[in-house]
Amino acid sequence: MARAFTPKVVTANDLLEGDVIYLTADDRWSRDLREAELITDEAHAQLRLLDAQKQVDKIVGAYLADVVAGENGPEPTHFREDFRRTGPSNYAHGKQESSPQPRV
């Protein structure tokens, strides 16, 4: 029996700034995981990933990341994705300091 599909989001890095970004249902890129499109169908996930990978003028390194549906939108299931959304951990200033994401 095939494994059940785990919900996904399309994530990448902004080409110019390097920030982690997420594809939204209305085809925007957001720096906020809570705005990402929660994809629950495997075929749709593959199509969204292909669409994202064509945007070489905006993003780099697009891939599908496992998530779960949370109260305020998608939430990461793996520590790597949780870490990516908060940014580098070696600085206590800049984007990390002003981030609305909780620091662990």
TrEMBL record:
Domain of life: Bacteria
Region (Disordered): 70-104
Listed name of the protein: Sulfite reductase
UniProt lineage: Bacteria, Pseudomonadati, Pseudomonadota, Alphaproteobacteria, Rhodobacterales
